Amino acid sequence: MDQTLIRFEHVGCSYDGVSAVEAVDLTVVDGEFVGIVGPSGSGKTTVLKALLGTLDVSYGHVFRRPDLRLAYVPQVEAVDWSFPVTVREVVAMSVDRRRFTRLDHGTESRIDELLERLGLKALADRHIRDLSGGQQQRVFLARALARQPELLVLDEPAGSVDVATRHEILHLLADLHHEGMTILLTTHDINGLAAHLPRLVCFNRTVVADGPPEQVLHPYVLERTYGAPMDVLQHGGMPVVLESRGHGPHRRLGERAS
Ligand code: ADP
Ligand code: MG
């Protein structure tokens, strides 16, 4: 049986006639955990918009399995947080858009479980405006999970959070993946996030490389992805990517050239 959930077939997208991504080929099958990694402005969010159908493609085709239950966690920065709702309301509204209707008991208890699991129980009645970046990120994750998606799509889930929160989010996503959820995320963070995923799509306007981190985290691929020379070291069995020191004299900030 074909387990393909989504497939980009030679897709290009542009804004007002200016091309943003070109000739994107990408397939995600059921059960995968995939990270699209690339620098800022490389077109990662554009790919997600094409996937969600919020942006028309200029050419090519985006296939989504019919009836695919998909939930999207936007980048924290892309959300208007002044909207006057509490944490519980914003999660409940993802199940039922009407704000003040009573949810059935099963849904209520599922939301309670989610808030508990994401460490948001104590914050349930707090206004979403009064949360830290990491807490806001978890609220949006709870909101997405309340819809019991088969495919969870996240844009920069570790974008503006501290190290501890990033670890928490990564562990939570790993748990969800082990429970059978398919996950597709974007990140510009190679070491903190991408290197921990089973499959990476190195991206800069198009797919530069696609495979497990030990295969794609290669200086040649990284230079083409990030436009700057990079070195790859091994640390505790994990690849660690550093800006290359091999090109020109390396100086600390404030040091003068002699
Ligand atoms: P990333 O998510 O990797 O940072 P984006 O997909 O947001 O990259 O952007 C890719 C390119 O498209 C960038 O050059 C960006 O300036 C441009 N772009 C993104 N959104 C818009 C928009 N709404 N209008 C015009 N250009 C856009
Ligand atoms: Mg983006």
Summarize this structure as a short list of keywords or feature phrases.
six-stranded mixed sheet; 28% helix; binds adenosine-5'-diphosphate; 258 residues; binds magnesium ion; 11 strands; alpha/beta; Rossmann fold; three-stranded antiparallel sheet
What is the compact description of this entry?
The chain is α/β, with parallel strands linked by helices and 258 residues long. Helix content is 28%, strand content 28%. The chain has two domains: 1-69 and 149-227, P-loop containing nucleotide triphosphate hydrolases (Rossmann fold, 3-Layer(aba) Sandwich), CATH 3.40.50.300; 79-147, no CATH class.
What does this protein look like?
- The protein has 258 residues and is of the alpha/beta class.
- 28% of the residues lie in helices and 28% in strands.
- The protein has helices at residues 44-52, 87-95, 105-117, 133-145, 163-178, 213-216, 219-226, and strands at residues 4-15, 18-29, 33-37, 59-64, 70-73, 151-155, 182-187, 199-203, 207-211, 230-235, 238-243.
- The strands form three sheets. The protein has a six-stranded mixed beta sheet with strand order 5-6-7-3-8-9, sandwiched between helices. Strands 2-1-4 form a three-stranded antiparallel beta sheet, with helices on one face.
- Helix 2 (87-95) packs across helix 3 (105-117) and helix 2 packs parallel to helix 4 (133-145).
- The model has no long low-confidence stretch (mean pLDDT 89).
- The structure holds adenosine-5'-diphosphate and magnesium ion.
- The site of magnesium ion (MG) has 4 residues, from helix 1.
